Amino acid sequence: MTAVTTKSRGPFLTWLKTGSGILTAMMAVIVIALIPAIIQGGLKLFLQRVFDSLNNGAVYAVTAIALVIIFKATTLINFAGANIAMFGAYVCWWLNTSYGFPIWIAVFVAMGTMAVLGSLIERTLIRPFDVNDHLPVVLITFGIAAILEAFAGGFWGLEFHKFPSPFPSDPKDRFTIAGAFLRYETIGTLIVMGLMIFGIYLLLNKTKVGLAFRAVSSNVESARLVGVRTGRTLQFGWALASALGVLGACLVAKQTNLEPAFMAKLVIFAFAAATLGGLDSIGGSVIGAFIVAVVQSMLTGYGQEIPGLGWLKSNFALVLAFVLILVVLLFKPAGLYGTRRIERV
Predict the structure, then answer these.
(1) Prediction pTM value
(2) Is 342 inside a domain boundary?
(3) Mean pLDDT of the chain
């Protein structure tokens, strides 16, 4: 009998196939490709691109986490999430401009209001359907999104509204580092994102409802058998995701101004981030958000300096996001840090 031997792969090749390895290789390729343009533009321009990507990455991360929370529990993309967040941003703006609420009080009230709306949507429109039949739920979320957008346009108008910044936003409110501007808004957005992630960690690991949510996210039927009230737990997930979506919308509305479709671009970048990092990984979605932001900032900023890429302007950022989603789904559907699902037949 002839023994069959298999050649073991080296530790480097094994690591290179992990999420961290792929991430490192990806960033190395981008940096090497952009080195000539970075040298030509100088340190100041490079740092400015990095600072801009930090602000965008934090906003994408907040919104991506809201998508991941629903997907973890239901394996469903919540297409109504963007417009729930948009409606909450309108509520925040309305309370601040019409009733004089301090901006952060208005943000928290809007988050609470949309959390209630999200829980009601889950209880009345989502729960009656079979969790394994996604088509009716997807159609319902599309319908909810259309209704909220129409209602916002009818009640507050279709024109652009200036959204108050939650942070100091005067042109002089900034630090200067090697000639590049790091704005207080960027620092504040990063701090809010960090506090939110820490709060989610405590919620999911140190509270009864958080542990129940993790159990349901792992296996709905097993959680039900051990006494977890899955309906209320999923309702909590919808409420939490709706509140976090509002927070992301309020952080980005200052940059884009407020109108019924202002979340459309943001949710595409957030979905690209969640797809890249892993649709069931909160930490992965945060990493994916900053990768998307860096790629967006660097390629659209420096790409025009590379021969053959002069057409790559900022309006192609959405194209880059869609290309990233397509590539990830083709070659690593679970994302860099997502869990590969195994179905028994």
Answers:
(1) 0.86
(2) no
(3) 84
